Predict the structure.
Amino acid sequence: MVILSLLVSVALGSGPVLPRELILEEGLIRLASMVDTNDSVNGWIEWLSDYQFREQYDHDDYGWLSCILALEAVNGGNFGIGCILTDGNGDVVIQGHNEVFNPYFRSDRHGEMVVMDAFESTYPEITCMDGYTLFTSLESCPMCMARLITSGVDTILYLAPDSTGGMVHMIDNLPPVWIQLASRQVWGAAECSPELISAADEIFLLNVADRNDLLEAR
């Protein structure tokens, strides 16, 4: 019960620690809690449940949890993107996923936005983001990149690149003031297994066409 209570508090943004063992516990609890799933989601639940962390990749546990959060987003009718924020000790302090369509439409509730909103509301006393790392299952879009630049998060790492909607690989096309601000930070790819990187991409693709159609219809 103590472990479960800690996990619940972290999921709500109030718990301070998720070492690798608790990341595994948290991820398995989240996978087991998914209901009303279709065959595609069920297949990924099984795959992620069976996945073994690859010790040679420093970020495999963070990447795995990000993929589970992305799958939660898909299962809830949102874009399949999951994010977590870690502190200087490598502990997960906030986790979340895209919430654009559910529980109700919010155009700003991208995964990165959800995590940063929760962090800034929960820890208003923290004014320096040195040592913090945000992991996202998909390369950040222009809106989220601007938010993360403004936040000052030390390091931003993504699993799957997004050649059509991502902005990190086009950072030099930002206006000069944004490029200058972004130079304080590290932007790049997370050190995860090729299998997890592929999983992050495929989970995002599960419903992206349908979700984009809904946006275009607004």
Remarks:
- The longest strand covers residues 92-97.
- Residues 1-17 have pLDDT under 50 and may be disordered.
- The chain has one domain: 2-216.
